[in-house]
Design brief:
The chain is an alpha+beta fold. The longest helix is centred in the last third of the chain and has 14 residues. Strands 5-4-9-2-1-12-15-14 form an eight-stranded mixed β-sheet. Strands 19, 20, 21, 22, 23, 24 and 25 form a seven-stranded mixed β-sheet that branches. The chain has a six-stranded mixed β-sheet with strand order 6-31-7-8-3-32.
Length: 719
């Protein structure tokens, strides 16, 4: 018997991809990434290899190159249809060809083709991208190198041209035949407090007196079997800034890359709403498709996605303000609402909703989210209660652009807050629907930081609308600013705001400065934030700010290969090709014409296996969460028997609003997971607890000890 040589898939096919090496550079809140895919053909026949892999949808991919036998071949960004034609022609003529493209239906999936890989030959393909890093609720900057790409659901006849429909072998995480190495360099003028990761790291090396730079790498032997997450904590992250970058020499004047570009970062000090807002119609759309039965991640096998989503939803239900309206939809291949119409939030409706949430299972088939969305948008609005939509899903939908288009078409009448549940959640869908509807997105991938993310989203949904947002520039005569970012209409308290502009005209002397001012109106009051900055542009060979500005523009205009309107497609192609940033309408192609051997027979196709989280039955447990600030305060004070806990008095808890929920974003360190879940489950709609034996058991105390800790007047009332 002859056995195939090299690494094999489960179908015993050799795997030409041997390893992936990543170099990561994080400067302040921007990441620059260079990823190299190393291929080798150990078979005796020429191959055509395909690798489908995930990318964060915020990634601006601007470079693709091939290294073949010591020769570097730079790829050219072309119209996608032209690139495909050139690729097929090159293969048929016996050339080596390499193609990199963004999926036609989702911005967070890429496909790399390696054509005519001859026996014994090796090739290294390198792609480069830059991206803004999101700011987490606890002040961390979060970088994720996606690895998990779970199967995505498609309606019959839809998305037939998606690369996700390719017959790609799927293997369990532990059986992946290729390895990953990551080396990261991190720098900040404000100093680095600490770096955390969900993967084993080598010892972190800090440099500079104030730890202004650091270097870290993944521990040896790491397989690309999970999303790699880095959390970077700087000493200061809320300082506004403006960075000006020099343009590309010898570029046409009407090209975005020619003139200097500015990246403006604001952290508006928006005050708390006075009085606190307690109105709103809160609609929760819960994914109950079969894929939600899968585990959250390889590191958290005891937690199913559906259970994590239910815990997230329960925490939100317990946090709603009295007097608002709400409803819950569960969806899969079909969908169902808890109530015929949104109902007023009170103890009775909350208890009924909780009863039904606890009965939810991941048993509704495919992820068909469009139909329930249209039903929600088609319902009559409630006067005085603006619609706030919360979506919980693992995002396993192939055609994310169609969903984003539906949400955007209804963006004027609601805000959308989305939660990606588990590793592999589509960043294109989760971020996209929140961005076009003026909300925010969060990703729940493990036990840490869940309640801070959930409650941050709720607090933002309760914020009043910030109106008349504008940006004005004070620049020397002869110099003007042209906005490249879309008009900003939504700003949230505690949120970082990034905008891009092109500086056109005569640049002044090196010592000259400019000023940019952010203005907005909140509850009838005017506010403004100003930043003064140097007008001396800095040279960056990678043109990072220009690429990010182009990506910001493309995210606004590019709605997928089929959904983008004709006028917008023209703009997308122009900016994408001029700036070298890939879009759904363009693709990178590299051709090695030195290799000119006629193909004697059809190339053997080899698809590189991709990792997924296998949906296997597991034992369930709960997140470590503290629920509301009142829950945390109650636990700490009764457990430690500090001053009498007035918080548990019903008389003191009837006014339920966002203003009396303090310290929402601090993790509880007193109770274990089980106690916290039970404590939150006992909380009433108005924020109080019934002081009884059940509460005492959760607190790990006797009822007599709890009563003894109460103020004397409440002891008399209880007795």
């Amino acid at each position: 018997m002859v056995h195939p040589c090299g690494l094999l898939t489960r179908r015993e096919e050799p795997v030409p991809l041997k390893s992936i090496s990543v170099t990561l550079s994080i400067c302040e809140f921007v990441a620059g990434v260079s990823a190299t895919l190393n291929y080798e053909n150990e078979e005796k026949v020429p191959l055509e290899a395909f690798f489908v892999f995930p990318m964060d949808e915020d990634s601006a991919v601007y470079s693709f190159e091939a290294m073949v036998d010591g020769k570097k071949i730079m790829a050219e960004l072309q119209d996608k249809m032209k690139a495909h034609t050139n690729y097929e022609n090159a293969i048929s003529q016996g050339h080596q060809a390499f193609l990199l493209e963004e999926d036609r239906c989702s911005r967070d999936v890429f496909c790399c083709n390696v054509g005519n890989l001859h026996p014994g030959s090796k090739v290294a393909l390198t792609l480069k991208y830059v991206q803004e890093l999101p700011l987490e609720a606890d002040g961390a900057l979060r970088y994720v190198l996606p690895a998990i790409l779970n199967p995505r659901y498609s309606l019959s006849g839809w998305s037939e041209d998606s690369c996700l429909n390719m017959k790609t072998p799927v293997v369990p995480l532990e059986d992946l035949p290729y390895t990953l190495s990551v080396v990261a360099t991190i720098s900040s003028q404000h100093g680095i407090e600490r770096i955390q990761s969900n993967c084993p790291l080598s010892p972190i090396e800090y440099h500079g007196d104030d730890k202004t730079s650091a270097q870290v790498s993944l521990a040896d032997g790491h397989k690309f079997d999970r999303d790699v997450e880095l959390l970077v904590y700087y000493s200061e992250v809320h300082t506004p800034s403006v960075a000006v970058e020099m343009g590309k020499p010898k570029t046409d004047s009407d090209c975005l890359m020619g003139d200097p570009s500015a990246m403006v970062s604001f952290y508006p000090n928006i005050p708390e709403a006075q009085p606190p807002i307690t109105c709103g119609e809160f609609v929760f759309l819960m994914d109950c498709s079969g894929s939600m039965q899968g585990p959250m991640s390889k590191q958290d096998k005891s937690q199913l996605r559906i259970e994590a989503a239910k815990e997230t939803l329960i925490l939100l239900l317990k946090s709603l303000p009295i007097g608002c309206y709400f409803n819950i939809y569960g969806f899969g291949s079909s969908y169902e609402a808890f109530f015929p119409n949104s109902v007023k939030y009170n103890q009775h409706t909350m208890e009924e909703a909780l009863r039904r949430v606890n009965l939810m299972q991941a048993d509704l088939g495919g992820t068909e989210i469009l139909r329930p969305l249209k039903t929600i948008y088609g319902a009559s609005s409630i006067p005085g209660h603006p619609l706030q939509l919360f979506v919980f899903t693992d995002g396993e939908v192939i055609d994310s652009f169609s969903v984003i288009k539906e949400v955007r078409s209804n963006s004027l009448r609601h805000r959308c807050f989305s939660f990606g549940i588990g590793e592999g959640a589509s960043t294109s869908l989760i971020k996209g629907i929140a961005r076009v509807a003026g909300g925010t997105s969060e990703f729940i991938t493990g036990k840490e930081r869940m309640q801070s993310k959930v409650l941050r989203a709720l607090k933002r949904s309760l914020q009043p609308v910030v109106e008349d947002v504008s940006l004005s520039w004070d620049l020397p005569q002869g110099l003007s600013a042209k906005m490249l970012s879309p008009e900003q209409t939504v700003i949230f308290r505690g949120q970082r705001l990034i905008v891009y502009a092109q500086l056109t005209g005569m640049m002044p002397p090196a010592e000259a400065t400019g000023e940019v001012c952010l203005k907005y109106i909140l509850q009838g009051k005017s506010f403004e934030n100003k930043v003064t900055f140097s007008l001396q542009p800095k040279l960056d060979a990678n043109l990072t700010i220009h690429r990010l500005a182009a990506k910001s523009f493309l995210q606004t205009k590019d709605m997928g290969f089929r959904e983008t309107p004709a006028n917008d497609k023209k703009d997308v192609l122009k900016v994408s090709l001029e700036c070298g940033v890939i879009s759904s309408h363009t693709a990178f192609i590299a051709i090695n014409k030195d290799l000119n051997k006629p193909v004697q027979r059809p190339l053997v196709r080899r698809a590189v296996p991709r990792p997924i989280l296998m949906s296997t039955p597991v034992v369930m447990s709960s997140y470590n969460r503290s629920g509301l600030g009142k829950t945390q305060a109650l636990g700490q004070k009764l457990k430690k028997k500090c001053r009498p806990p007035e918080e548990i008095s019903p008389e003191m808890e009837t006014a339920r609003s966002s203003s009396n929920r303090t310290n929402l974003e601090t993790r509880n360190t007193v109770f274990g997971n089980e106690h916290l879940v039970q404590l939150i489950s006992l909380q009433k709609a108005n924020g109080s607890w019934d002081l009884n034996e059940g509460l005492a058991v959760v607190l790990g105390m006797s009822l007599e000890d709890v009563l003894a800790a109460l103020p004397l007047k409440f002891q008399r009332e209880k007795l």
